[in-house]
Fold:
Amino acid sequence: MKPATAGAIGAVVSGIPSTAHALFIGADVLAATKAAGTLLPGRRNRPGIAAGLIAHVVVSATWTGVLTAIARRHRLGAGGGAVAGLAIAALDLGIAARAYPAVRALPRGPQILDHLVFGAVVGALLERTRQETTSTTSPGCSEL
Structure:
């Protein structure tokens, strides 16, 4: 599996905790997407769904690149990816929450869980790819 595919899967499933939380409390399930839209230049005070989707793709692709670089040197797996996801949450939510009111207004717990899920899923998928790559037969060797 290509890192881009792992990142895309992670980006899609990472919204499950905050979406489930929003459904449970009767809040706007698209609040996080709209808030992400304010991260784009010129949209700080203009949340929006389309802008949020673009911002989410850019942010997820960036973090997927970082996790891919780490996974080339260190085993991540789901556990290491989850830890990385928490570190990403600290950076994303710590920095963005200070500078962007729409992000600051989001419930913190579900957002942290979204990041944890992203890291865990991407880490697990990258590890799976790594195992598939290393389990292939070396040149000059035959399979039993």
Residues 66 and 84 are 10 Å apart (CA to CA).
